[in-house]
Amino acid sequence: MPYETARLLVLAIMGGFAVLELVRGSFWHRGIATRRDALLDAASMLTLPVLVFPAVLAVAPHIAEAIRPDSEGWLSHLPGWAMFGLLLIGDDLTQYWWHRMSHRWLWLFPLHRAHHSAPYMSVRVVYRNNIVYYLLMPGIWISALLLYWGFGSIYGTYLVLKMAVIISAHSDQPWDAALYRRAPRLMWFVERRVGKEC
Question: Fewest CB atoms within 10 A around its CB: which of 50, 95, 126, 152?
Answer without folding.
Answer: 50
